[in-house]
Amino acid sequence: MSRSMWVLWSALFGLALGVAALAQPVPERSSPFVARIELDGAIGPASAEYFDDAMQRATREGAVAVVLRLDTPGGLAESMRQIVSGILASRLPVLGYVAPDGARAASAGTYILYACHVAAMAPATHLGAATPVSLGGSTPMPSPLGAPAPAGSAEKPAAGNDATHDAEANKVLNDAIAYIRSLAQLRGRDAVWAEQAVRGAATLTADEAVAKHVVDFVAADASALLVQASGRKVRVAGQVQTLQLTGLPLRDYAPNWRTRFLGIITNPTIAYVLLLAGIYGLILEAFHPGAWLPGVVGGICLLIGLYALQLLPVNYAGLALMALGVALLLTEALTPTVGAVGVGGVIAFVLGSIMLFNTGVPGYAVNLGVIAGIAFCAIALLALILRLVMRARRTRPFSGDEQVLQATGELLQAVQPDSESWALVGGERWRVHCETALPAGARVRVLRREGLQLWVAPL
After folding, report:
1. Each residue of 383-402: pLDDT tens digit?
2. Angle, to 10 degrees, between the axis of helix 191-199 and the axis of helix 108-115?
3. Which structural domain range is residue 101 located in?
4. pTM attached to this predicted model
5. Domain-located, residue 47
């Protein structure tokens, strides 16, 4: 396909997307409704963008309140704070609702629920375990609120890097405690338990959360949530409002295509696979110049993977180990070292893959099955390279003097004693010199080569 046709098809595709966007119906603002936003899975950049976009649409389209349904194991602190800031700045009351049955609002979800104007939970749900996890390494579990230090353990500052790490961990922990306590005080909820959730990873079931004034009530479904929330007074944008939500319809706000795409590529496993596809695509293009497809696909995958990595909690030591592993495998392929460099490359690649993302952040770890599969493929490729190398070393030479000196041939013409003739050796015509007389068709073997002439003897 010519370049002009590619340009034409690209223009038509862009025009179709624009028409589809313009053709979407605009909801009428005639009757009041309640918007519903659903946060499922790990809290990340895609979740924060989806929440901001849905809140803006709900406000613009005339919603009277927002139901924020939560079912999350936690996620990134930066994304969580972005969502909380959106709730605090909202001109609409936000009703946090942990649902359906069996759902949870753990870690970052606990902060979000505390920030909501009304907090509710479905039966058989739970919340808590909000201890922050350091992106630079493991965070030791702090003692529960008010718990004494273990007997026999002297409390003294560590030296060097340990003291720095402890100070850093304490700063992160105290900042998280102050943050959730401020949210609890703003909404009139239990600040003591909020601190326990951060300091000691405490958790509560739905009924226990109501008893401790962590949430306002338990609601069986969204309709019951609106009925039980009606009549409550909340402060929104500096003004006190009385909620009147009974009987209002719920309108779901699904994420748009951009948010879905961002959610896909920021999945750690997908980002990991995209990164590898990009690297190996460019390597294939380098080994086969002019193929185009591996280079184009690899470049696109690499750029998308790098974009996803800058949104995720990446351990750059793991990324460096992965790059070293790929480089060592390439070195093994180009200059075989009987496996020494290749084995080191596989080990570095696997360790880097495991370290790439901070596994302490809920929902942000590469699937170990994917890592194991790619590592198995790398080992199989290394074994194939070594097998080919060993087989090549055992094969007989097929060029050079060594091959010629092991060759035999057939005289094409009769030869007189100590004279020259022609012979077919190795499928090629050679001028030969022989000390004895031989008839045409006689079999000879090569003794030595002098320039373009072979010295032969009867076989």
Report:
1. 887 787 777 777 665 556 77
2. 160
3. 30-143+169-258
4. 0.67
5. yes
